[in-house]
Amino acid sequence: QEYMIIKMELVSPFPDKFKALEGKKVFLAAATLRPETMYGQTNAWVLPDGKYGAFEITETEVFVLTHRAALNLAYQNHSRVPQEPTCLLELTGHDLIGLLLRSPLALTEVIFVLPMLSILMNKGTGVVTSVPSDAPDDYMALKHLKKKPEFRAKYGVKDEWVMPFDIVPIIEVPEFGNKCAETVCLQMKIESPNERVKLADAKDITYLKGFSQGIIIVGEFKGRKVQEAKPLIRRKLLETGQAIVYSEPERPVMSRSG
Ligand code: ZZB
Fold first, then answer.
1. Is there a contact between 4 and 127 (Cβ–Cβ < 8 Å)?
2. Is the bond into 13 cis (omega within 30 degrees of 0)?
3. For ligand 1, atom 36, which residue shows the shortest CA distance?
4. Hey, how many other C-beta atoms are within 10 angstroms of the C-beta on 257?
5. 25, 58, 135, 202 — which has fewest CB within 10 A?
6. What's the confidence (pLDDT) of residue 258?
7. DSSP 3-state assignment of 98?
8. What local confidence, expressed as pLDDT, does residue 249 receive?
9. Does any ligand 1 atom lie closer than 6 A to the CB of residue 37?
10. Looking at ligand 1, which residue's alpha carbon is closest to its atom 35?
11. What kind and span of H or E run contains 151?
12. How far is the C-alpha of 72 from the C-alpha of 160, rounded, in Å?
């Protein structure tokens, strides 16, 4: 599986826990298969109890991701020391919740890191960028956070990290509109982020519709088909240094682990 890692930059001044990294460029490294949806990012997701680390990628750049992903990256020529991940800071998802980020192409200028309980730690980087317009999982998780003050309280999520952020329409799909994930979740009567089986189907449908029939309605490639825009946006992100390619060597196991 070939992902792109989107470099979501930690906004300075850094919080206390990250003070040792001040002066470096620190990125939450989000693995995605949908670079053309980056305009619609509204937040980032991490697993609260997941183990993460801040790893040296170059002399000046640090990525926050799982140890497993850091090791994979080290074997793909993305580590300060060749083939060896060097961790500057051990972290958990709890340390990341509430961080303020600036993410490539996002129409929302700054976004927050929020908790998602369905994140798989053995897939991608363990960090996911959230596009509630076109990803059913993201749509349901954001809706849940907004609806449930007790869930926000449990994870120390402040209202202002969530409430001001609404779906940003970025892709128009015939018959599904410009909030494809919402349309599909409503049609399938999905009521909570825990309906994993239904959500997997919703994801497949949304992927298929968006890719085969979607038209980009914002940004530089406005008016183009998703199929045409995808490789152009991918190339742009790579050329500007806002993303890198990341290959997943083994098949991920479908279970959750810290
Ligand atoms: C942004 C995005 C926008 C995504 C979209 C999807 C969609 P797949 O096909 O199952 O491999 N993802 C990445 N890593 C993880 C993880 N560790 N745990 C949980 N989810 C993860 O799915 C790949 C997608 O799953 C990635 O692409 C990422 O979300 C998420 F509009 O990034 B995506 C219809 C889907 N739309």
1. no
2. yes
3. 135
4. 11
5. 58
6. 41
7. coil
8. 81
9. yes
10. 135
11. helix 149-154
12. 35
- Is the pLDDT assigned to residue 127 strictly greater than 60? yes
Q: How far is the CA of 74 from the centre of ligand 1 (A)?
A: 22
Give every CB contact of residue 144 below 8 A, 6+ residues apart in sequence. Answer: 151, 192, 193
Dihedrals phi, psi of 82, to nearest 5 degrees = -55, 130
Write the ipTM.
0.99
As a whole number of angstroms, the distance between CA 45 and CA 71 comes to: 21
Residue 150 CB coordination number (10 Å)? 6
Q: How far apart are CA 140 and CA 118, in angstroms?
A: 11
- Under the phi-then-psi rule, with left for phi > 0, alpha for psi from -120 to 50, and beta for the rest, what region is 151? alpha
- CB of 124 shorter than 6 A to ligand 1: yes
Q: Which of 12, 56, 3, 60 is nearest to 32 (CA)?
A: 3
- The pLDDT tens digits for 33-78 are 999 999 999 999 999 999 999 999 999 999 999 999 999 999 999 9
**Whether residue 203 has its Cβ less than 6 Å from ligand 1:** yes
Q: Looking at the chain, which runs of residues are DSSP E strands? A: 2-10, 25-32, 43-46, 51-56, 61-65, 87-92, 100-102, 111-115, 128-130, 171-172, 215-216, 243-247
Q: Which amino acid is located at 217 in the chain?
A: I
Q: Where do the domains of the chain lie, and which CATH numbers do they carry? A: 2-247 (3.90.740.10)
- Check pocket membership of 31 for ligand 1, CB cut-off 6 A: yes
Structure tokens given for 4: 């792109």
Q: How many Å lie between the centroid of ligand 1 and the Cα of residue 137?
A: 8
